[in-house]
Amino acid sequence: MSVRKLKPITPGQRFRVVNEFDTITTDKPEKSLLIPLKKTGGRNNQGKMTMRYIGGGHKKKYRIIDFKRNKFGVDAKVVSIEYDPNRTAFIALVQYTDGEKRYIIAPAGLKVDQVIVSGQENIAPEIGNAMPLSQIPLGTVISCIELRPGQGANIARSAGTFAQLMAKDGKYATVKLPSGETRMILLTCLATIGAVSNSDHQLVLSGKAGRSRWLGRRPRTRAVVMNPVDHPMGGGEGRATGGHPRSRKGIPAKGYRTRSKTKSSNKYIVERRKK
Question: Fewer CB in 10 Å around end: N or C, the chain?
Fold first, then answer.
């Protein structure tokens, strides 16, 4: 895992910091796990723009990822570590002993030919293995955590993220999440051992505006240059500051609490994240 700064041979290369991708082992995805991905350009089924600043970008296919890890007790051998254009983390192609192939989110340190397994009990807490929180030792670094049993991983899935198992009490485990929040999660929920791969993602710099276009992101109009009819921060004579930062609907930005006091999941949050 390393990044490299390019020599400034063009204006676009001057500030570019690239990922070496030295953990990637192949550039050809598994065809049976690809499905087409249609571009919306931010339009809905009536052709009306519902999301601004989306459109264009390089064509890509979706890789079907096994977030549920529900093939219990069957050993899987890591065939390759691959790049996935749909997410920041790398993915690993694994082949089970019965011949089935699946993609999983690759944890940091996963190697080709390594054997991993997921199961409900008697599984070693080694990198890449998936098991319920009840079977994981305290203090272990984990990722790809379920919030509801059988739902599939939906916490700590992006590049370099991880959570930590802090305590177990009754039918709940206390987990410190990547945001800094401490939360109770059912012990029957699955999690993968180890942090997510590609922690260098945060060090990468695109170098030029065109690279955002390749990713399908169009230029975003700042609020202060709009008219008052379009945004609370628009208008004014000359170059106005826009006043206090707020959203298009007038809700203050920068730390204003919008979470409901009566939200049902409040009772599971032990400690809110620090600002």
Answer: C
